[in-house]
Amino acid sequence: MDSIRIDKWLWAIRAFKTRSLATEACKGGRIKIDGIAAKASRDLKIGDIIEFKVNNLNKKIKVVKLIKNRVNATLAAQNYEDLTSAEEYERLEFIKQMKTEHRDRGAGRPSKRDRRNIEKLKNL
C-alpha cells in the first residue's frame, strides 16, 4: 500500500473516535499535512508530518506506517511517531488543572458569593 486517505488513516490510528469526525476536521481545515490544510480525500504517504488539534492539544505526528483498518491502541501507536512538544503537554496539564476546582475537605458548600467568584475565575 503506497497511500491512503488521511481521514481513514486518522480514524485507524484512533486519533478520532469516528471516521466522520476525522472527515469533519479535514473539512474545517483543522488537519494540516506539512503545514498545508488537507482535504479528507488527500492521500497520505509514509514520512508525512500531520498537525491537528484534539482535546485542546495541538498534536504533531509523523507517519511511519500506513494502515486501513482500525486496530487497538498499542498497535495504532506503532504506526506514527509523536513529534508533539513537551511544552504542549505541559500546557494541556495546566488547562486541566485550571478547569478542576480544588476545595479543602470539610470546607462545606460554597456560598452564593463564593460561587460567583468561582464563576468569574472560570470565565477568564
Care to describe what's here?
With 124 residues, the chain is an alpha+beta fold. It has two domains: 84 residues, Roll (Structural Genomics Hypothetical 15.5 Kd Protein In mrcA-pckA Intergenic Region, Chain A); 40 residues, no CATH class. The protein has five helices and seven strands, in the order E-H-H-E-E-E-E-E-H-E-H-H. The strands form two sheets. A five-stranded antiparallel sheet has the order 3-2-5-6-7. A hairpin with a 2-residue loop joins strand 5 and strand 6. Helix 1 crosses helix 2. The mean pLDDT is 89.
Which key phrases capture this entry?
2 domains; Structural Genomics Hypothetical 15.5 Kd Protein In mrcA-pckA Intergenic Region, Chain A; two-stranded antiparallel ribbon; single chain; 5 helices; 124 residues; alpha+beta
In brief:
By secondary structure, this protein is α+β, with helices and mostly antiparallel strands. It has five helices and seven strands; from the N terminus they run βααβββββαβαα.
Order of helices and strands: EHHEEEEEHEHH
Count of discrete alpha- or pi-helical segments spanning 4 or more residues: 5
What's the overall average pLDDT, rounded?
A: 89
Question: How many E-type strands?
Answer: 7
**What is the count of structural domains?**
2
Question: What does the largest sheet look like?
Answer: 5 strands, antiparallel
CATH superfamily of the largest domain: RNA-binding S4 domain
CATH architecture of the largest domain: Roll
Q: What fraction of the residues are assigned to beta strands by DSSP? A: 15-25%
pLDDT under 50 segments (min length 5)? none
Helix content: 25-40%
Ends distance: 49 Å
Indicate the radius of gyration in whole angstroms.
19 Å
The shape is elongated
**CATH class call of the largest domain:** Alpha Beta
CATH fold assignment of the largest domain:
Structural Genomics Hypothetical 15.5 Kd Protein In mrcA-pckA Intergenic Region, Chain A
Strand order across the largest sheet: 3-2-5-6-7
Quickly give the structural class: alpha+beta
